[in-house]
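---------- Forwarded message ----------

FYI, see the HECT-type E3 ubiquitin transferase record below. Original note from H. follows.
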Amino acid sequence: RKEFVDLYVNYVFNESIQKPFEDFMQGFLRGCPARKWKMFLPGELQLVLQGHTKLDWRLLQKNVMYRGYDKLDRTIRNFWTVFHELPEEKKKMFLVFLSGSDRIPGDGLERFRFFIADPQVENPDEVYPSASTCSLILFLPR
């Protein structure tokens, strides 16, 4: 029985996925050569590939820069009040809206900077917030 279980476990976790894994590994190593990844410990490599999953939202607020706004403007104060009342999942959805990802790159929130800009439209009540994900700019109408 032990031999059967050992052979079955080996088949399920190794042999049955060998071909798909080899295909994946070949494609992955074509774009990311293994010699470049050997300098990382497993935890560091996971952080580089996945980014940060636990976020300090107050630090995010502290690092934001403003264009056409001051951090004490009523619109900005209201934005952050509402933002901090959101559940964690909605805050991550905001990150997706802003950056295209619900995670912060591996160098951390300390270096993650984005802008909140006034789109300076004639009728701000007729304009929705929008974002430039490449430039990390949230266009927030007054």
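H. also flagged this: Residues 18-31 form the longest helix (14 residues).
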